[in-house]
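Run log, item B.
One chain of 351 residues. Sequence copied directly from the ordering sheet:
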Amino acid sequence: MSKHLTGRDSEMRRSNHGRRIALSAAALALVVLALPAGTQALVTKPGKPRVSTGAVTHVHGSSGQLEGTVNPAGLATTYYFMYGPTTAYGSMTPAVTLAAGTTPVKVGQLVNGLLVGYHYRIVASNSAGAASGGDRQFTTQLVANKLELPKEPRVAVYGSSIAITGHLSGTANAGRQVVLQSSPFPYLAPFATISAPVTTNAQGAFSLRAANLLRGAEMRVSTLDVLPIYSGLVHIRVAVKVTFHARASGTAGLVRLYGTVTPALSGVKVRFQIAKAVRPGRSERETAFATQFTVKVKHATHSFSRFSTIVRLRQTGNYRALVKPPEGALVTGSSAHLKLHAPPSAKGKKG
């Protein structure tokens, strides 16, 4: 009787022990399930690392800190971040090594050149294998970039330079590289870069210089990003360069007017004009200057032409030489003003 009860009691004890093991496993499962989303559980045996990609913090201009979490899974582990304009990335940070451990470690690395819309993720590896975090995109609190330039046409003298200033607006607009591009008259050629890169300042402002302008052109500014941003077009007109001089001719009352036109424009007309008072209600273009004499230029060299004429001045005043080239790559240009004095006995006749 007692032996039977003892055996039965032993069987019940084994059954209760099994139930306790099952309950313990269930409780452990419930603890794991209760972990917040993205939390890594403790690692109980060595294996390949467990990683998760975090946020971007400490954003300043085009720099920011990429963050993530790495669990080394009991082995020395190296990690790095990949980032770029697409999920192909293209750039990566230096690899950093973590000591062997079994708990998640929050990590971060500072990167430059991080732009709106860039993708990034964390990658880690150890002797047991490699793991990658999920792809994330840098899009929090962003304002799209826009290149803004003055829209007014600009005029430069042949062979001179001109500054193009502007502003890159939007998020991460400081520390960005931009260049000036040009399509020369008749504006059919593809845009080509004509300046060295410059870097936008803390406010996104920049100034670029187009040098040695020889013909009209359409210009724009471009960022040096994998996916460039382009400004609107600015029309640059290039005027012929005119020099103007005068000296006594050796004959009383007569003066020699002479100078050069660059580039060489054989046969074009030079107009010698005197400044006039502007009549009320009329534009300066219509009334500011009156032509007194004309002469045609003569070819001098492959790069410039000369003009010269002897005249009897009719009026004392400020004169200029004006040249209107054939319609095309260049526009009308004029010289600096020159004060000339007519003789008291001048009768207004050309010598």
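Observations after the first pass:
- The CA atoms of residues 317 and 339 lie 6 Å apart.
- The chain has a mean pLDDT of 84.
Flagged for discussion on Thursday.
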